[in-house]
Amino acid sequence: MKCFGIDNVPERGGAMLVGNHSGGLPVDGGMVLASLFFARDLPRHATGMVEKFAGNWPFVSEWFSRVGQLPGLPEHALRLLQDGRLLMIFPEGARGTGKLFKDRYRLVQFGTGFMRIALQTGAPIVPFAFIGGEEALPTIYHAKTLAKIVGAPYWPVPPYLVPFPLPLGCEIHYGKPMHFPGTGREPDEVIEGYVEQVKSVVKLLVLRGCALHRQRTDGTFAQEPEDSSSGSSSAAPSSTSGPTDTDSEP
Amino acid sequence: MKILITGINGAHARMVALRLRARGDEILGIDRRPWPDAPEGVHVFQTDVRKRPAADVFRQHRPDVVIHMATITHFTASAEERLRINLHGTRLVFEYCHEFGVKQAVFVGRHTIYGAAPDAPLYRTEEEPPLAVSTFPELADLVAADLFAAAALWRWPGLKTAVLRMVYMLGPTHRGTLASFLAGPRVPTILGFDPLYHFMHDEDGVEAIVRAVDHQLSGIYNVAGPPPVPLSTLARGTGRQPIPIPEPLFKYSAGRFGLPYLPPGAVAHIKHPIVVDATAFRRATNFEHKHDAHAVMVSFRES
Predict the structure, then answer these.
(1) Nearest residue of A to residue B119, measured between CA atoms
(2) Beta strand pairing status for B104-110 and B196-197?
(3) Cα-based distances in Å from B83 to A218, B87, B142
(4) Which of B194, B197, B247, B267 to mutate to test the interface with A (most CBs of A within 10 A)?
(5) Which InterPro entries does this chain map to (chain B) (predicted)?
(6) Which domain range does residue B42 map to?
(7) How many angstroms separate the CA of residue A50 from the nearest CA in chain B?
(8) CB–CB of A71 and B119 under 8 A?
(9) Which ipTM did the prediction report?
(10) How far is Cα B234 from Cα B182, in angstroms, rounded to an integer?
(11) Which of A52, A59, A76 has the CB atom closest to B118's CB atom?
(12) Domain count across chain A
């Protein structure tokens, strides 16, 4: 895994990391957490806002609890930010990890709750793009019956049937922190406008990240970006390709 | 100060009584059970809080403060009995407090009324709704009692009412809900779940109740001691063996194989945490616990 722009994550104080989901399972979240630990001189721990259904799953619930991840509730987000903690948000939610491979790297609808909490707490938003997850765990089909049985919103089925990520190189691209004025009590139109700005930046980071990732894996990459990298670089081939059109909405 | 304690024969209520007596308060007590060797200065009236003699205690002795601890949490009592004592008893005690000029009433409740659920906030503040009515229906009587006590805050503003939602009390007394759960050598857990358990030492719990009286507290407060620990840690720390049981088999194992009996609603409380934010109480009373989680577990194990 490589990460770029890690210096954009504040060294201390509350902040929200907001990015795209990539891959059929939320392992991208684990890699973001790892980047904050291993790519920084001063490691930070971020808390993810976990989908509520995971709390009912044996072992999964225990695992999230053990690694300091909490159910995605406004109460948790507020408390953590007020305590000066880092929050990891995927505003696409389960819609993001549920994307099929044909829709890879196309952002779906962003929730707006995170923006109101950012305004309420004055926390900066650090956008990021996660690249490579779509290839590491491509979803070609949703097993709806199985999902219903286990209480999940979807069950990803990759070409190799078992939903387990392949050992492919992934990248995280952190963007500059974004600050928005307000109290969190603004009308929906204002909040949606702010969210759209964040989404646009994430989309740009995704496009840029996909291009750089493609160059790197094709061996045509001439110059590293200005940012740091973490972990071992992956030489595994990848078929990363960005969205084929400019409109990322489904 | 003249202080009446209902349910005075409970282990924790006795500790409160002795603590207040030792510093010079006059203690009255109401309980169905006798306290034959009650120390001097502690007057126990053996009656039910729902009976007329209990009203006479209020009428004749006019206590300044009432600490209401006459509630039951164990499930060996029938649902009807629990409802009669927990809800109807609480209603009558608060009506007597109002009628007979009591200055402060302290209701000693439980944090379990918040209920355990996968989508509940980790830290429960006093504003949180009591989810236990749906997640643990067998606790409905305690939820109702808590809410009824809290209603006194607006029904009778002249009566200072403190509703304390206390985490589990654990320690040398071996009394209380959590102590009963940990009574045997094996502790059942749900396979794949290891929730945080929030508890405090018996003595810290008693100190908190006394502080609520000293500060003439009025309002609803969560009361907690040290940070919570996972159930598996609690079991091992108290010298018990955690036995993970797949959830579908849990109801068949309760009360068998040396495991404690638990009603069906208790499953949620073994799967998910109930942790409270006790900041408001600490600020209001300067309360600090003296026993950390390890000390609490050791005191329970070694007594």
Answers:
(1) A52
(2) unpaired
(3) 73, 5, 8
(4) B194
(5) Epimerase_deHydtase, Lipid_A_modif_metabolic_enz, NAD(P)-bd_dom_sf
(6) 2-172+199-225+278-291
(7) 10
(8) yes
(9) 0.80
(10) 9
(11) A52
(12) 1
* pLDDT bucket at A220, cuts 50 / 70 / 90: low
- Residue B82: what pLDDT? 80
Q: What is the CATH number of the domain that holds A85?
A: 3.40.1130
CB-CB neighbors (< 8 A) of A68 in chain B: none
Residues 6+ apart with CB under 8 A from A155: A142, A143, A144, A146, A147, A163
- pLDDT digit string (tens) for A76-96? 999 999 999 999 999 998 887
Answer whether residue A171 is part of any domain: yes
pLDDT at residue A221 in the model: 54
| pLDDT for residue B220 | 97
* A189, burial (CB in 10 Å: exposed 0-12, middle 13-18, buried 19+): exposed
Q: What is the pLDDT of residues B54-88, one digit of tens each?
A: 999 999 999 999 999 988 777 666 778 788 888 88
Which chain A residues touch B271 with a CB distance below 8 Å?
61
B202-245 per-position pLDDT tens digit:
999 999 999 999 999 999 999 999 999 999 999 999 999 999 99
Residue B192 belongs to some domain of the structure: no
- List CB contacts (< 8 A) between B118 and chain A: 52-56, 61, 71
CB contact under 8 Å between A58 and B247, yes or no, is yes
- The domain tally of chain B equals 1
- The answer to whether B111 and B167 are in contact (CB under 8 A) is yes
The one-letter code for the residue type at A97 is T
**Structural tokens at position B287:** 């309360």
Q: Domain span at residue A129?
A: 2-218
CB B175 within 8 A of CB B11: yes
For residue A188, being part of any structural domain is answered with: yes
Residue A240 falls inside a structural domain = no
CA-closest candidate to residue A71, choices B188, B265, B275, B227? B275
CA triple A116-A120-A123, angle to 5 deg: 95
